[in-house]
Amino acid sequence: MTVDHSVPYLPRTPLLFVVSGPSGAGKDSVLAGLKKTAENLQFITTMTTRKPRAGEVDGVDYTFVSPEKFEQLKAQNEFLEYAQVYGNWYGPPKEAIRQALRQAKDAILRVDVQGVASIKKIVPEAVFIFIMPPSLSELEKRLKQRVTETPVELALRLNTAAQEIAQLPLFDYVVVNNGGSLHVAVNELKAIILAERCRVHPRKILL
Amino acid sequence: MTVDHSVPYLPRTPLLFVVSGPSGAGKDSVLAGLKKTAENLQFITTMTTRKPRAGEVDGVDYTFVSPEKFEQLKAQNEFLEYAQVYGNWYGPPKEAIRQALRQAKDAILRVDVQGVASIKKIVPEAVFIFIMPPSLSELEKRLKQRVTETPVELALRLNTAAQEIAQLPLFDYVVVNNGGSLHVAVNELKAIILAERCRVHPRKILL
Fold it and tell me: B133: nearest CA in chain A?
């Protein structure tokens, strides 16, 4: 008779939520919406060797580290996964997740779809959530609005998105981000988190 | 790319939610709270041979039938479970559930804890939700407020409640109904329903 979700969530098992989805699905917008009202939820910042862009805050947008530091943590197996994009390394550090769990907080992180299969091997008990665009044509529209995309880049991204969507069966939940009604997607993500907190047999993370 | 939870929930697999919990946990209050704002959710009315009490509406509070009719459905194996209480029969009819699922609506029903083990055998893919009082002492307080309880009845009910709470591991989710903040429990129940609707691998009911 000690279960209690309403008040301070005291003896509850802390959880790990992994959010992913194709580029252009709106993962960042949905997570930003969640962040505004999330309680007891630690957003895990990705570590990168990339230089900060204008306006980016260390520890918030990314944790910026030297290539040497990244290499050291990689050698110590201290990333949940890591990937090189355009010559820069990216990876969510395990220690940040452990720290959240030790503080009895749920951890949430955002990863690219291609990292999910390997993360599932390390933490099969994480809750995997896929943010989905309402359709490929809508995704194309969104990607076209990003002025940075050339036609070749666009075709490549759409092809990648189709391949990423094929990874859906790896996930536990799917949230459709219907752009115009972002709050619907945010609300679904919040519901998933709250529901997982109500589990009789919670998905305990060993990391 | 046809998944869509936001708008009309079209090609989604309809689900079955089974809500239970000890007497005095406030199942009816939580379900009444849910009913006010639930969308696309069919509340399954229990069939009974008991005579309607003042104010009870046929098909809403219960579906009132003759003992002969109940016996006939029982013989046809048309109840999800059935039980006799003070000489009257009670049971949720399978056909009402099938009807909801055929209409692509999720079905939700309220049963006593002792019925859950046998329901799990028939529909293991149902989502089982336990409504829990915050503590046994709080439950005692609530039961005492019901003027109908004699001290012997009260002791019996508390003992039954303790036995029922021991059945918690049979359930998927637990919602603590902290009386004073009913909306917290209703919100958790709604989150569970919404989250289950977002499952990549939904729990398909065969009935």
Answer: A1
DSSP letters spanning B45-72: PPEESSPPPTT--BTTTBEE--HHHHHH
Burial class of residue B200, CB neighbours in 10 A (0-12, 13-18, 19+): middle
**pLDDT tens, residue by residue, A157-190:** 888 888 999 999 999 999 999 877 899 999 999 9
- Chain A residue with CA closest to B197: the answer is A173
Domain check: are B28 and B117 in the same one? yes
CA A195 distance to own-chain centroid: 18
pLDDT tens digits, A98-112: 999 999 999 999 999
Q: Specify the residue for token string 């939520």.
A: A17
Of B1, B174, B178, the CB nearest to A200: B174
d(CA A55, CA A163): 32
Query: Which domain CATH number covers A33?
Result: 3.40.50.300
- Hey, are the CB atoms on A1 and B135 less than 8 Å from each other? yes
Percent of chain A exceeding pLDDT 90 equals 69
Task: Tell me: do B21 and B66 sit in the same domain.
Answer: no
Sequence-ordered strand ranges (E) for B44-161: 47-48, 63-64, 83-85, 88-91, 106-110, 127-132
Domain coverage including residue B170: 9-44+104-207
Whole-model pTM?
0.90
Q: Do the interacting molecules here have an ipTM over 0.95?
A: no
Side by side, the strands of the sheet bearing A106-110 are A41-43, A106-110, A16-20, A127-132, A173-176
Do A195 and B194 count as a contact with CB atoms less than 8 A apart?
yes
